[in-house]
Amino acid sequence: MAYFIKSKFFWATFIVVAVVVFLIGVNNDKNYSSETDILVLPKSEKASRDLDVITGNIREIALSLPFYERLLLSDKNIEDQARSFSEHNRKKEWNSQIRIERQEGSGVVKIIASDDSRLQASLISHQTAKNIARQMSRYYDIRKELEIRIIDGPIVGPKSGSFSFALVLWSLVLGVLAGMAAYLIDEEISGKRFEKRHFPEFKLAFPSFSTEKNPLDAKSEADHGDVKEKEETREEKPVKKAEPEREEPKKETEQAPRTAARKAAAPENLPIGSEFVMSSLKRAEKTQHEKMMKEREQEQQQASIPKTHEATEEEIRRRLNKLLGGRG
Fold it and tell me: Residue 218 above 70 pLDDT?
């Protein structure tokens, strides 16, 4: 149900269907009532005492089937909605259309007729009031005992109570069902019957590296080996011991600290998780290799320069003696 509640498509369908069903139901259930009031005037003391009985007789006469038949004959514009019904059902249908009520404490009798048509409701209530006056003249002396007059109506209006809670509930239920059906159909068409949960893809924090050596690493190791062999060969050469002379201070070349070359594969738990870090490592290795090549070239240049040795005072005397002795 949570999927439906979060769906805008569901709510849009629900609102549209619920409103449409409610309006259709109200229009189909639309009913009009027409009210006509008559005043019963007793002219004798006996009629005054029997006023409750007289109004009760008016009600029973108006609800009878013969009265309904005479009503239809009195006005051809009144539709017989129970034409095909049996006598029992015809009377039942007529009693559902008409209602007779007495206003308490008075001789006013309300005749209320209801129908789907405003015109029919007005005709039924008005003709019922007129026919009641005619029918009561058969049972009472209208000149000495009783007089009936129409004092108000017909007043036609929408029937009260046509707005029912059942209609509202029914429209809401149909709206929910229509919204759910529309949501499922939309999901079926789009290939998403149930909402898929998308989780963010995380990159591996500890990527695995292959055991193959990087070509740059292999090349740097080879260069380190060549430089190391040359240094060892240079150290093994015998140095001739000369007489104590003033030795020239050796010029030490500044060398950048060398980092040990990586000879094994990187551990699998190395916390590197992006291509940016890998590219940075490659650039660092390349820079280190270039430094080593520069150092190697400097060492070769220094090795090719012949070393000069300044003669001491004894060597100068010895050479002068040799020269003087050769002349003598």
Answer: no
